[in-house]
Automatic annotation (TrEMBL):
Protein name in the entry: Ribose-5-phosphate isomerase A
Signal peptide span: none
Residues annotated as binding substrate: T28, G29, S30, T31, D81, G82, A83, D84, K94, G95, G96, G97, K121
Function per UniProt: Catalyzes the reversible conversion of ribose-5-phosphate to ribulose 5-phosphate.
Keywords associated with the record: Isomerase
Classification via SUPFAM superfamilies: D-ribose-5-phosphate isomerase (RpiA), lid domain, NagB/RpiA/CoA transferase-like
Catalysis: reaction(s): aldehydo-D-ribose 5-phosphate = D-ribulose 5-phosphate
Assembly and oligomerization: Homodimer.
Length: 218
């Protein structure tokens, strides 16, 4: 199966995790796009979606799925999103699509994070994928120096402005052996909006697309 077929497979499988009648938290990316397409088929059975990016909002609305403001919703039973890397404990690197901050906000409102990913995303240790960090523009050089001091190699993502008007630093060369500790440390640096480690609020379950079908990691 191709990577696209695996993404379509887990996008379909995620529908089983949607709670009928509820508002669904929706992530961002090519795997989530497959999920949104499936969600459109059952749109009469859900109350709408809270979206993590302008791109996902556009796709949801184009398919006739109502998008609610995150501030109007107190609780989401489930948030469904992809990942750039996921380890066996459910910790993830996210932000390849630059939507990490809104993704973390919607995930925080949700009771369960269901990650959908093709098998190439499963790793033993996070960090092969460069870590995305959303930063306030005036702090980008200072934050880059802090990453260099810990052995990382940061670069500004060319031409990218996030939905929140900020920049993305991609940090290569970090071996993330304690994801929750590193997430906490980076998040308290002045000017960091969000770091792309999702360990303090990690995936409760991962639907992994493999050549043998969907493997559920919980
Ligand atoms: C966007 C993300 C995506 O979930 C991540 O980049 C995975 O994307 P894809 O499903 O296209 O591989 O974090 O900010």
């Amino acid at each position: 199966m191709t990577q696209d077929e695996l993404k379509a497979l887990v996008g379909r499988a995620a529908i089983d995790h949607v709670v009928p009648g509820s508002v669904v938290g929706v992530g961002t990316g090519s795997t989530v796009n497959c999920f949104i397409d499936e969600l459109a088929k059952i749109k009469d059975r859900i109350a709408g979606a809270v979206s993590s990016s302008l791109k996902s909002t556009e796709r949801l609305q184009a398919l006739g799925i109502p998008v609610l403001d995150s501030n109007s919703v107190e609780r989401l039973p489930v948030y469904i999103d992809g990942a750039d890397e996921i380890d066996r404990a459910g910790c993830m690197i996210k932000g390849g699509g630059a939507a990490l901050t809104r993704e973390k906000i919607v995930a925080d409102i949700a009771e369960r994070f269901v990650c959908i990913a093709d098998a190439s995303k499963l790793v033993d240790t996070l960090g092969r994928f460069p870590l995305p960090v959303e930063v306030i523009p005036m702090a980008s050089s200072q934050i880059a120096r802090k990453f260099e001091a810990m052995g990382g190699n940061p670069s500004l993502r060319n031409g990218v402005i996030t939905d929140n008007g900020n920049l993305i630093l991609d940090v290569h060369g970090l071996a993330i052996t304690d994801p929750a500790a590193l997430e906490a440390e980076i998040n308290q640096w002045p000017g960091v909006v969000t770091c792309g480690i999702f360990a303090r609020n990690k995936a409760a379950v991962c639907l992994l697309g493999t050549a043998d079908g969907v493997r559920t990691l919980a």
